[in-house]
TrEMBL record:
Active-site residues (renumbered): D110 (nucleophile), D112 (proton donor)
Protein name according to UniProt: 5'-nucleotidase domain-containing protein 4
PANTHER family reported for this sequence: 5'-NUCLEOTIDASE DOMAIN-CONTAINING (PTHR12103), CYTOSOLIC PURINE 5'-NUCLEOTIDASE (PTHR12103:SF15)
Source domain of life: Eukaryota
Gene source species: Gossypium schwendimanii
Family affiliation: Belongs to the 5'(3')-deoxyribonucleotidase family.
Cleavable signal peptide: 1-22
Binding site for Mg(2+): D110, D421
Obligatory cofactor(s): Mg(2+)
Pfam families referenced in this protein's UniProt entry, alphabetically: 5_nucleotid (PF05761)
InterPro entries per the UniProt record, alphabetical: HAD-like_sf (IPR036412), HAD-SF_hydro_IG_5-nucl (IPR008380), HAD_sf (IPR023214), Pur_nucleotidase (IPR016695)
Cofactor note: Binds 1 Mg(2+) ion per subunit.
Gene3D superfamilies: HAD superfamily/HAD-like
Amino acid sequence: MLILLIALGVNLFLWDMRTASCYGLDSIININANPVFSLLIYPGAKQPHCFYSMDHSDRTMLGDKALQSHGGEKPHIWSSLEGGPRIDIGKQIFCNRSLNMRNIVAIGFDMDYTLAQYKPETFESLAYEGTVRKLVYDLGYPQELLEWTFDWKYMGRGLVLDKKRGNILKMDRHKYVKVAYHGFRELSKEDKVGTYGNTFIRDSFDEPDYALIDTLFSLAEAYLFAQLVDLRDNNPGKVPEGADYPRMYKDVRAAVDLCHRDGTLKQVVAKDPKRYINEDTSIVPMLKMLRNSGRLTFLVTNSLWDYTNIVMNFLCASHKLEGGITCKFDWLQYFDVYSCSAKPGFFLEDNRANIFEVEPESGMLLNTDNGTPMPQVGSTSPKMLPKGLNKRYRVFQGGSVGHLHKLLSIESSTQVLYVGDHIYGDILRSKKVLGWRTMLVVPELEREVELLWELRDTRKQLRLLRNERDLVEDRVHHLKWSLKFESLGDDEKQNMISSLGELESRRDQVRLAHQQAQGDYHQKFHKIWGQLMKTGYQNSRFAHQVERFACLYTSQVSNLSLYSPDKCYRPSEDFMPHEFHILPS
């Protein structure tokens, strides 16, 4: 027997089971309404056990911190005997486009910053220090760079670097620049408008003149670019001859690439993964749950086999192979296919890259016939996989999405859900080119949505101030119109002039109060760039990309473990501006 009880304020009502059949309950909750929401499913029901709760805590909306599964904590997943945990707002999966998981045959994952969440305070600092050393010792920059320090909290995802001018920009979804810095110096409103606003042709703000900071890997290089801009402005003789802003950015990128090519970063991480990668004990239970539900799983990453094996072993270290067997390839049991690819080119159907099978023990590349094993000549035949792993867990390097579809027997691109962290390299190409369903991992989102909940009353006050500002400005405009076009007596005119002065004073007070309150509000999220998903009252450019290309988005990949593998994700209702004051709150 299944019984549903929902309390909203003091009103109790029955919920239509057809509405809840796909468990898309979280997507229809109006956060601003501040409801109490409980779903009770009694034992013996055929439906999955779950419990969603929205309380009035100033800290979280759904559930509590004790249910998060970081480090060595026991994971709480949907398929557990308890029926799954309450879901903290920071761990929800948010939906842009309807996605019924029952239609998904295969689920793929990126590794870096998706399955493996790097610690920015250590990993990004390591990347920064390695890049600086390459600039000094390989590209001729001064030794004083070695004394520079890195503030890993300064930059944010979604920014745009203006290579020609040495500026860092944040813009809204219409590509209007709202925040701009030259190096670490904020541009005045006049400079900002003069540079980016007074043009006859709108700038696209894309390559080659601009660089998009759309992955966490890019934060260190953006910070270093800003430092070099200040160095060149203040001490032009200290940078290499001929090094203008575009050249300096090109050098930074070259230094970053050198760090990746010579293994500077990955060798250090491989020696002590725990120092650089967050542990998440929910990853393996999540993968097990997905596979038990009948889904194929695959891993597509730009990292090579040797590094991938180390990272994945670290992430799965607390779990043993079925039957109690352990070996250094334990993690392969959770995937049908692993592929070291060259994203985003991997997603192109006409990509003719050769595909090689990797022999896990030696790392040897074996020729294949489009993924089909080929007889090996001479004494180079591969070793058998360790006992406990069978051949259906296959490791490849190269190839394209066509090979992947063949290996997994995918009949339609819409049967694939791919989870990644890079809006361009993972999400945009897989969605726009292939039509895969997509989920974007945005680690910063957890803190952002929790702050949104804490500051919900502040947001209401901002709306009230904005409304008052609009009303006062309209009254000022009306009095000015009357003074200009109406036939008025001297006394009436004098009274209007006096009222106009008072209103203009009030307008200025409200405008300043509103601007100050809005600035303080955004600084709660980030002292420089404000909210990740907002620029003023508009969605940010990054938020616009997330909305366009990510079917789902969430703060970490293991949040999938908190939901049914057969869940039907539904988006919240879209609103046009003309609807807000008409629909009931």
